[in-house]
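Pilot study result, target chain (426 residues):
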Amino acid sequence: MLTIYEREIRVVQQNFFLCCRGTHQIIKLMSMILSKNRQLRAEIIKALYYKKSLSFKALSEFTNKSLPLITSTVHVLVKEGLLTEQGLAPSTGGRRASTFILNPARKGYLVALVVSQLSARLCIYDLSNNNICPTQSITLDATWPFNLKPLVDFINSCIATSKIERTCILGVGIGIPRFFDEGSETSSSVLEVDAVERLSNHLSQKLALPVFLDNDVNLIALAEMNFGEAMGIKNVLIINIDWKTGLSMILDGKIYRGSSGHAGEFSHIPLSKSPTLCSCGKLSCLEVDTSLQIMVKKALKAIAEGVQTSMRTRFEDKNLTLAEHFLNAVIRQDPTAIVIFIEAAFQLGRALATLIHLMNPERIILSGPGAKAGKILLSPIQQAINEFYIPRIADQTTILLSKLADQAELLAAGSLIMERSLFDEL
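Predicted structure:
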């Protein structure tokens, strides 16, 4: 039997518990509201980064949020100096809507880095997507995984040269040509880092900046979706013709990564009859017929065999990579380079005919450095597709050259920061 004092103590304890539980629920609710608010702010900033100028209604449609919520949030962002009113949208018959842009006076910069097999390129964009300093590059050790320190030193050196205050840098976006485990950003064999450790965290510690990573081919798809030939198209295949041959798939408007992030290894489909061993250690991979690496090897072999070609002297110029020299020879219509390139493009076209039958895409975009060859690339690919396709399926697919070409990865590496940042630094 409890005494009156014990009962009073019990009541106080129960009330205290209820009060604490209520406070905890309030704190949890406030945390959820703040989190959603931060996410909406990020979505609005991202929308204006891609679309430049949008009205309240357009922002509501882009973010799939109510017009009143968008209106109130935009007003807060304007008050904070993140956005500014640009003016009135063109008349559509009624009252002209106000449009908003990212405030050009607000300093925020995106460091974009693309790592390839033999080199790395870096540029820095502002929030209006302008490249504010010349693209810089560094040669890398061809042995993988390569030492991480030269890459970190290169990034820090470029930032120092730009004279940009590090507090104004929103992050570093990096594209790397290797497998990524979805959700962990661990890479199979790229950098000299413990496989268990997130590469982004490792690099972020070294650079003292937020770092965001993705596969280089997926970055090209991101660029084409937001700046190029895949804008507004739901089902697209993007082929990256580079030192390797890559594929990225946009299905139902989203980049398809597969169950663990390894989808799109198109270049390792066994479609080749060449006895050449692929970099993956297997025979018959498509890559040994279609990559710029193989084309350069064939060009060097032709030179060694005494074939007369302009590449003989130009390959000695160390200011450009061998792939760049080869593509320039193709564009200048050097006969030897043309023959090698057309043969590779035809084999790529055969493989694309298979993809068309499997995926039934609306569009195929030829991107990467190889796209600079233009019609010289497009013609043999179309010829191969005409030879190996079922017309009623392939006629529904258009094949286009990327207008972004080798700039696609850099653009997307910058926009990767916009995709994943919550902009707490702004």
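One observation from the pilot: The longest helix spans residues 4-51. A full batch analysis is planned for the follow-on phase.
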